[in-house]
Amino acid sequence: MIIQNAVAHEQGLSDLWAPRRAFWADRVAHEAAVRANLLSLDATRQRHVGRSPHPERIDPETWESEYALLTRPGMVDIQLDLFHDYRTNVASYPKWQAYLRDVQPPTLVLWGKHDLSFTVAGAVAYGDDVAEAEVHLLDAGHFALDEAAPQIAELIRGFFAVRRLETERSAE
After folding, report:
1. Environment class of residue 95 by beta-carbon count within 10 Å: exposed (0-12), middle (13-18) or buried (19+)?
2. CATH of 2-171, one of 2.60.40.1120, 3.40.50.1820, 3.40.50.1000, 3.50.50.60
């Protein structure tokens, strides 16, 4: 498994998730807050830039094109429906964690430590479930590939090289 800023543990959800959790509990009462928190141009830019120490590495086209898509007719309602359903992912976290603990799949975690939405604790938690997990905290935000593609590519190549050696050894 290769995981890049994708949570499977509640501790990986930042404070940004408070209005989103309220939305899950009472959609009508909290929809306006989620629209502002998730679907505004500023929020879209923040998903890409976050607290990055290198915002110049992030092409503005990434958030501008995402925002253009989000503002197409009917798209906001689709995104709100999808986001409301995200609560089912969180409810499934214990099952995902049990799988990780039981199966111990080879796991590489590549995590932008400046992510505003998903915390470093979410990355570290994978290592709690998978004893041999490789967890790398990168000097990047949520979309770490925008800022650290060469480093990520090298880590993935190394991860696969180790898996290949393990496979060859077990075949002998």
Report:
1. exposed
2. 3.40.50.1820
